[in-house]
Specification:
This protein has 179 residues and is mostly beta strands. It is 0% helix and 45% strand.
Length: 179
């Protein structure tokens, strides 16, 4: 077991075969503004907050089953006292966006016993968001399309309910869909 500060954990797994590359409007893969979106450098570039009265745990999963691509994914768990206006979040600050430009925030999620109110989000007061499926599900693509109203945004995965385990991988933010 690996102790990682602030309720953050990593899931290690064998590399997955890559899918065919999509055709991009520009002809080249667009810039991904997210740093370490595949968690191949552990929790580098990411922050985590959770209420002090939540029972959240961390562990290293090296079973070889829990990454969408590469070796790692982020593994989130939450149980215990869940009340309104409390949430846990993994987040990253993204600078240098163009105001008025359309962006695609994407992630791959997989879960067991995921709560009904978990989000992939950005924007003031989470105004741009997509619900992560609840229950138990395999790797699922989640996408939020938004127009930047600031040059700086914070992207986040929010946990607002009891969740047995949620893996997240391949998070990207770009001007064209990447995933």
């Amino acid at each position: 077991m690996l102790a990682v500060p602030f309720c953050l954990s990593l899931a290690m797994s064998a590399a997955r075969p890559s899918c065919a590359s999509p055709a991009y409007a520009s002809g080249e893969q667009p810039q991904n503004y997210v740093q370490n979106g595949g968690f191949e450098r552990a929790g580098e570039s990411w922050g985590w907050t959770c209420p002090h009265d939540w029972d959240a745990s961390t562990s290293l999963d090296s079973t070889g089953r829990n990454a969408h691509s590469g070796r790692n994914s982020i593994k989130l768990k939450c149980s215990g006292v869940i009340t309104s206006n409390k949430y846990g979040q993994i987040y990253q600050y993204i600078p240098n966006l163009a105001v008025g430009r359309t962006y695609y925030l994407e992630a791959w999620c997989k879960g067991i016993g995921v709560g009904s109110n978990e989000l992939l989000s950005t924007g003031s007061k989470w105004q741009y968001h997509a619900n992560i499926p609840s229950g138990t599900f395999g790797w699922t693509h989640i996408k939020v399309v938004f127009t930047a109203d600031s040059t700086n945004e914070t992207i986040m995965i929010l946990l607002q309910d009891t969740t047995k385990v949620l893996w997240v991988d391949d998070i990207s933010l770009s001007t064209e869909p990447i995933n």
